Amino acid sequence: MADELTPETPDEAEQPIKQRKNGLYPGVSDELADSMKSGWADTELRDLQPVEQAPNAAERRAALSRRFPGERLVIPAGNLKTRSNDTEYSFRAATEYVYLTGDQTDDSVLVLEPRGGGAEGAEGHDATLYRLPRSDRENGEFWLDGMGELWVGRRHSLTEAEVLYGLPCKDVRELADALKEATGPVRVVRGHDAGIEAALTDKVTAERDEELRVYLSEARLVKDAFEVAELQKAVDSTVRGFEDVVKVLDKAEATSERYIEGTFFLRARVEGNDVGYGSICAAGPHACTLHWVRNNGEVRSGDLLLLDAGVETNSLYTADVTRTLPINGRYSDLQRKIYDAVYAAQEAGIAAVKPGAGFRDFHDAAQRVLTEHLVEWGLVEGPVERVLELGLQRRWTLHGTGHMLGLDVHDCAAARTESYVNGTLEPGMVLTVEPGLYFQADDLTVPEEYRGIGVRIEDDILVTSDGNRNLSAGLPRRSDEVEEWMARLKG
Ligand SMILES: [Mn+2]
């Protein structure tokens, strides 16, 4: 083994790709190779405690086990993705894997094995976490392999991971072969680990795998106490990130929207894992581009800034908040008129969020208020009922009024229509309420002064037993309160 990894005469073609791609000098003497095998302290961590959400993850696995009795279930964390040449994007574990384990380690795979080989009468599953062990010092992989710990950082040993996640752990490098040999029904969460999927290619069907994905999406519709607390943390960091942005608007005016993106990102990286999605830092007419993430535009006094951004916590729960701010601290009359209409629509939407209400109700409530204003302003011919029936308001309202929020910003996206869009709100659901009005810069159907104005207000709302709680109430929403808040921050 050592000879293959430490050739005296470098033969590039014979070397593992990962070894070459980190640019390690391949000529390694036997003496150096021997030296690198020993002289390292024992660093095993022996006083670890389970991660906070380990009991929650165990309950989720138990529910999953009940839904798919007798079947082998394979849930990969995913692998690093190449950005360019030999650099990779920062890793973000698959939501399904995180939800069921509390772990975020790349190349790991959770497997639920039916007890008794799935035989009639056997109940439940045994869960195993397959993951990369610590790098071997004997064969040199820890410093000669691109995935070695010397390059990428220390990993938890399998024993440490067993304590952290409350699951037996095995070497993931044995998993593909084991899956190829295994018999019986099996399902895999697709789209995260091509190697694992290749090992299962003859044993799975798209339809059955989709049922697993749908189940794991619907299971996340109602959040537990840990998840609600994490979402509140994400929102609280996001509030601070918005305050950071207000304080540097003069610097953004001197540079570009990128200054806003960078400022918010700093808060996200210091207090959390990352931003939960690309920050939309849309000044002036860019506010009318719904997913404006180029963020390379000018920031001008007198324009609005639509900032749609969310911090993702270290446990990977994300906020999703939007404020539309006057860059100079004060809305113009027309900006305020449009802003106040969106605010009224959001108020109506939030009021419709309560247990037992339909998921569509808050959307309908907000759309009605927006439409009433559009008719009142003479932008579309009434009556309001006719406009709503034909959906004519959508030229300016553009998108749905909200979505579930959690580990994914658009959480539970694979849930069936009957359990989500046509479903009923329950305590523990967390969703956004985010109406908007957008007048495109080239929209000849509206008066010229409207053109290039876009307003969205978005908050993160928890359904409670008697109504709802606005998790992002820490950020002012009413136009006069936004102005006061900005004045205070700008000092
Ligand atoms: Mn949103």
Quick synopsis:
The protein has 2 domains: 54-219, Creatine Amidinohydrolase, Chain A, domain 1; 225-490, Creatine Amidinohydrolase (Alpha-Beta Complex), CATH 3.90.230. It contains 19 helices and 17 strands.
Describe the overall structure.
It is a single chain. This protein is α+β, with helices and mostly antiparallel strands and 491 residues long. The chain has two domains: 54-219, 3-Layer(aba) Sandwich (Creatine Amidinohydrolase, Chain A, domain 1); 225-490, Creatine Amidinohydrolase. The chain is 37% helix and 14% strand. It is built from 19 helices and 17 strands. The protein has helices at 2-5, 17-21, 30-37, 54-67, 95-101, 141-144, 149-152, 158-165, 175-181, 194-199, 206-218, 225-247, 249-254, 257-271, 333-351, 359-376, 384-390, 394-397, 479-490; strands spanning 72-76, 82-84, 87-88, 109-114, 125-131, 169-171, 186-188, 274-275, 280-283, 304-309, 311-312, 321-326, 430-433, 436-439, 453-456, 459-464, 467-470. Strands 6-5-4-1-7 form a five-stranded mixed sheet. Strands 9-10-12 form a three-stranded antiparallel sheet, with helices on one face. Strands 13-16-17 form a three-stranded antiparallel sheet. β16 and β17 form a beta hairpin. α12 (225-247) packs antiparallel against α14 (257-271). The longest helix is centred in the middle third of the chain and has 23 residues, at 225-247. It is globular and about 80 Å long. It starts with a helix and ends with a helix. Bound molecules: manganese (II) ion. Residues 320, 403, 432, 434, 458 line the site of manganese (II) ion.
